[in-house]
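Researcher: Sit down with what I've pasted below and flag anything odd:
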Amino acid sequence: MARSVSLSDEAFAVLRRDKQEGESDSDVVLRLHRTAHRKEKDPMAFFRNPPKADLTPEQHLEFIDKMRAADKRRNPWGN
């Protein structure tokens, strides 16, 4: 059963941008929903599909140090 849905101009533009050849609007919504929830429910998704980054190993270690410092500022007692 088809239903009418109202979308903002921005939401409609995103729908059109993400639409692949041969997909209906419903197909796009379902694909994006499955993709979003799969990553949300799969704690190992990050390791299977790591984000692409242009960090050198040194920059990566520096980033880790910054995150640890931020964690300490947020929770100085470590629990």
